[in-house]
Structure formats: structure tokens, C-alpha cells
Here is the input.
Amino acid sequence: MNETFFELVATYGTWVVGLSSFLSCLLVPIPTALVMLAGGAFAAAGDLSLTAVLTAAYLGAVLGD
Here is the structure.
């Protein structure tokens, strides 16, 4: 299952990070910590923008609350 989330982050990028942050605030049991770590790893590798990942996570959490 973890490989699925890593593939989703690699494919869809910040959308998956924002959606997982949003759904975790709505108490949906998904491994958001793994998605955030994957987003950070892809940002550190240069595949995703760090600003975009942080913004997506923040907006997902605010909208979920």
C-alpha cells in the first residue's frame, strides 16, 4: 500500500499532498505522514517545488478544518 502512495505522489505531485492533508483533517484513515515524507523527499530531489508542496499541505489542512 505504501508503494501506491509513493507512486501517486510521484505522478500527481502536490495534488496528492493537498488531498491527503485535507482528508486527514476529516478523519479519513490514510497514511498522511508517509505522503508528506514522500512529498518532502521529491522536493529535496528537485522533482517537486518545495513551496508548492508546503502550500498544498497547508491549504489542504486549512480547508479540511
Remarks:
- The chain has a mean pLDDT of 90.
- The helical segments are 2-12, 14-25, 32-45, 50-64.
- The CA atoms of residues 19 and 51 lie 16 Å apart.
